[in-house]
Amino acid sequence: MTPDDLTPDRDLRDILRRFDSPDRATPAQRRNLKRRIEAAAAPHLAERAGGAPAWWEFAAGWARTLIPLGVATALAAAALMLWAAKTDRARTVMMPVATQDSLVGSVRHDRTSQRLLDYLVTPALSGSATPPGRD
Amino acid sequence: MVTRVRQGDREAYGALVERHLDRALALSVRLLHHREDAEDLTQDAFLAALDHIEAFDDTRPFWPWLSRIIVNRGLDLAAARDVRVTEPLPDDAFDPGQSPADAAERAEILSRFRHELALLPPRRKLIMQLFELDGYTVAEIAQLLESSRATVRWHLHAARHQLRRALANFRGDGP
Fold this sequence. Notes:
The complex is a heterodimer of chains A (135) and B (175).
Chain A: H1 10-19, H2 27-50, H3 55-86, H4 88-100, H5 103-108, H6 113-129
Chain B: H1 2-6, H2 10-32, H3 35-51, H4 62-81, H5 100-119, H6 122-132, H7 138-144, H8 149-171
Helix pairs in contact in B: 2-3, 2-4, 3-4, 5-8, 6-8, 7-8
């Protein structure tokens, strides 16, 4: 027997085969492994695909932080507005702003065009007559 | 396909994994004798292949390149674990049709064979299993292990010699 003699040895092969019990993966295990490999490779592939990730990848990355923060802020704002609307003091503070300083407020209070013009111009004139900090 | 993978094409990479996954996993199991470790090795090898894909010569087939990554890493892992794998006795080690004396002798021979198999150095054992069980040619094994054909032949010869000695009585040609 020499190293060049590689003729098949059936006995040896048979017995080796009997000792060989390859731990084969089931189709589900194979699928999971493939998914795992692809998931692990995704950032490397994204890097190759174009350097900077797309905007939705940033959004997806921050979604878990920003969505709860946004919802909490919206709820707090809604609660504050409800509280303000029900409080008398808040209503008295808010009313002059709504009625006097807004054009929409003036129209809704049925002012004529001349009165509306006077109404809009007068505060400006009275303000310029006595500029702040001059007296 | 490799060109598309280089450009970061996920589908192309998925197709590459799909094409070579079975062989890669089988080779990893062959090296580590443990399916979960083999899965980790397979994943690691596919990622390493992606990281070093620029070094791959795409005029050549992909599998020999990937299999070399698996073998290099697998042999390192096996050496780091430094565990001699002992295969269990086959299910048919005890044949109910045999006389108790024959069965005992047969079990002893199989046990001796298993012992010799466990004593083989990992590289030599791998060469023999690839050749005898997985149908690799000497040239393929040489390429896989980045070794010469003569070296592979020599390892095969030595492994066969060692195992045949254990089988001598079983085959009736012993002392």
